[in-house]
Amino acid sequence: MGDPRKIRSKILHPKHPWVKERLTEELVLVGEYGLRNKRELWRAASFLRGVRASARSYLSLTGEERVKRESELISRLHRLGLVSKDAKLDDVLSLTVSNVLERRLQTIVYRKGFAKTIHSARQAIVHGRIMIGDQIVRSPGYFVTRDEEPLVTLSTAKAGGIPGSSA
């Protein structure tokens, strides 16, 4: 069964560490989306890898079971904001890491214009200046669903109301 204290990693690292093409692609994505390190990129890639693997496995099914599982996957990805409501499995298989990174809170804050740069968006989130609904979210990697996207706003609390701040 394994030791419960030794939790498995949720991400897969690249098998070969020094592939120049992969390194340059990763560096571009890290800079474009303001990621702290490549581990955040690998987490998004692992999530996408799992979604695409399940979509490929559904292609081998036939009949009613395939339709049921395909519709469940597409409705889940639609709630997450990755595909449209009338998407097919080909649309799921054509998703890229950039599509997943666009749904992070840090990117949405930047795209909505709450921050001038992607790095200042990350800082605003960590400092508690961003709310989803009435809840302050301090994780830049938070995956924003389609329903939560219009609820992303600037915090109305003053700096004195944030624990650990001095004002």
Quick recap:
It contains 7 helices and 3 strands. It is mainly alpha-helical and 167 residues long.
What does this structure look like?
The protein has 167 residues and is mainly α. It folds into two domains: 82 residues, no CATH class; 57 residues, Structural Genomics Hypothetical 15.5 Kd Protein In mrcA-pckA Intergenic Region, Chain A, CATH 3.10.290. 48% of the residues lie in helices and 5% in strands. It is built from seven helices and three strands, in the order H-H-H-H-H-H-H-E-E-E. A three-stranded antiparallel β-sheet has the order 2-1-3, with no helix packed on it. The longest helix is centred in the first third of the chain and has 22 residues.
Helix content: 40-55%
Number of domains: 2
Low-confidence stretches: none
Which value, in Å, is the CA radius of gyration? 19 Å
N-C termini distance: 50 Å
Defining key terms:
167 residues; mainly alpha; Structural Genomics Hypothetical 15.5 Kd Protein In mrcA-pckA Intergenic Region, Chain A; 2 domains; three-stranded antiparallel beta sheet; 7 helices; 48% helix
List the helices and strands and how they pair.
Layout: H1 20-33, H2 38-59, H3 63-80, H4 89-93, H5 97-101, H6 105-111, H7 118-126, E1 130-132, E2 135-136, E3 152-154
